[in-house]
Amino acid sequence: MTARLPKGAVQGVVMLHGRGGSAADILSLLDHAALPDVAAVAPQAPGNSWWPSSFLAPSAQIEPHVQRGLAAVAESVTTLEQAGIPRASIWLCGFSQGACLALEAYAREGEGLAGVFALSGGLVGRADLSGPQDALYGHADKRLDYTGRRTGKVWLSVHERDPHIPLKRAKDSATALRALGAEVQMQVYPGAGHGVMREDIIALRHALNG
Q1: Per residue in 74-127, pLDDT tens?
Q2: What's the confidence (pLDDT) of residue 141?
Q3: Distances from the Cα of 99 to the Cαs of 10, 62, 194, 200, in angstroms?
């Protein structure tokens, strides 16, 4: 875990890297967004990946890795709280695998958090659905049936033809989070791609400068 805890910080964010990335990589996003006064904690995934395959993989295969990731997020939130950042001022932010983990942590355990920035991501889901086993990029769809209230803000971005994140899963994720009470802004970029876009940086800066 890598932490940046500037004195006097009033906003905090848990930064979650993508597959093959690192805590240092994802923390640099705050530099690009010109947010030096925001407290940040970035856990490091074992082997630089939160799970070894697609987030669309069967639940039995991916859930143990999701649980490990959720524990890392919870520990990071606690670190920020111990540094004096109120839970209501703590965000989750991730790219790719990290975006999926951020959304899943918010949906399952994020009550009271400020919200999420999910850059090229979607919810992992709680269980496999019956139906076509190749509905989404060769995988079955998932149940997105979460409980509780989530009243924070969610920025969810994805390309129309993302090679890793099906647009359907991203849209279904937005619907599921709205059903929990979250204020979701979904940004769909035209064409093919998988990356952090200028609009993502602007949205992050705007929220965390508040």
Answers
A1: 999 999 999 999 999 999 999 999 999 999 999 999 999 999 999 999 999 998
A2: 87
A3: 23, 15, 12, 12
Residues near 165 by beta carbon (within 8 Å), at least 6 away in sequence: 96, 100, 120, 121, 122, 158, 159, 194
Greatest pairwise CA separation for the chain in angstroms = 52
Please say whether the beta carbons of 40 and 27 come within 8 A: yes
Whether residue 163 is predicted with pLDDT greater than 90 in this model: the reply is yes
Query: CB neighbours of 63 closer than 8 A, spacing ≥ 6?
Result: none
Category of 109 on φ-ψ map: left (φ > 0), alpha (ψ -120 to 50) or beta: alpha
Secondary structure (DSSP) of 25-45: HHHHHHHHTT-TTSEEEE---
- What domains lie within the chain, and their CATH numbers? 2-208 (3.40.50.1820)
| Strand 39-42 to 2-4 pairing | antiparallel
d(Cα 144, Cα 3) in Å, to the nearest integer?
31
Residue 160's pLDDT band (cuts 50, 70, 90)? very high
Average pLDDT over residues 147-158: 96
Q: What is the mean pLDDT of residues 160-189?
A: 97
Q: Which residue has the tokens 């995988």?
A: 139
Could you tell me the CA-to-CA distances from 183 to 97, 143, 156, 175, 177 in Å, in that order? Answer: 22, 21, 11, 10, 8
Q: What amino acid is encoded at 32 in this protein?
A: H
